[in-house]
Write a structure and sequence with these properties.
Strand content: under 5%
Helix content: 55-70%
Number of helices: 7
Oligomer: single chain
Distance between the termini: 73 Å
CATH superfamily: lambda repressor-like DNA-binding domains
Largest sheet: none
Radius of gyration: 20 Å
Order of helices and strands: HHHHHHH
CATH topology: 434 Repressor (Amino-terminal Domain)
């Protein structure tokens, strides 16, 4: 890993994205900083530094966090993940219970919603055609 002084602005901004997404997913799962740290076998201060983007997560730590939190690795790198999750789960983000892992896969959820919308449009069109044929 590059020393902090040699890292570019891109390094720092990506560390922030990964850290913000890590914190967001951890909170959705209703897991404390200390609980995640214990499961990752690191100090809670280290997880805090990851979440703030002060320290860079290695590939293994990202993989480990994804397994512990039950989400796909790709969502740690997605700059739009938090915004898309808020858009899709606007009423569920602040809920009391931990969010199930299947609700963390925003790409799958959006694809399912799109298929549902297409089905509804198809049904509306089919009903219109049937009504025109009966007239």
């Amino acid at each position: 890993m590059l020393s902090k002084s040699l890292r570019s602005l891109d390094h720092h901004s990506m560390n922030k994205v990964i850290g913000n997404n890590l914190r967001f997913i951890r909170k959705l799962k209703k897991m404390s900083l200390m609980q995640l740290a214990e499961k990752m076998k690191v100090k809670y201060q280290q997880v805090g530094k990851y979440e703030l983007g002060q320290n860079q997560l290695c590939a293994y730590r990202i993989y480990q966090a994804s397994n512990i939190l039950g989400c796909k690795v790709k969502y740690f790198f997605d700059e739009t993940y938090i915004k898309r999750m808020h858009g899709y789960h606007s009423t569920q983000i602040k809920r009391a219970a931990a969010m199930p892992s299947e609700l963390l896969d925003i790409d799958l959820l959006q694809a399912e919603a799109q298929r549902e919308l297409e089905w509804l449009e198809y049904e509306d069109h089919r009903k219109k055609v049937l009504m025109e044929q009966n007239v």
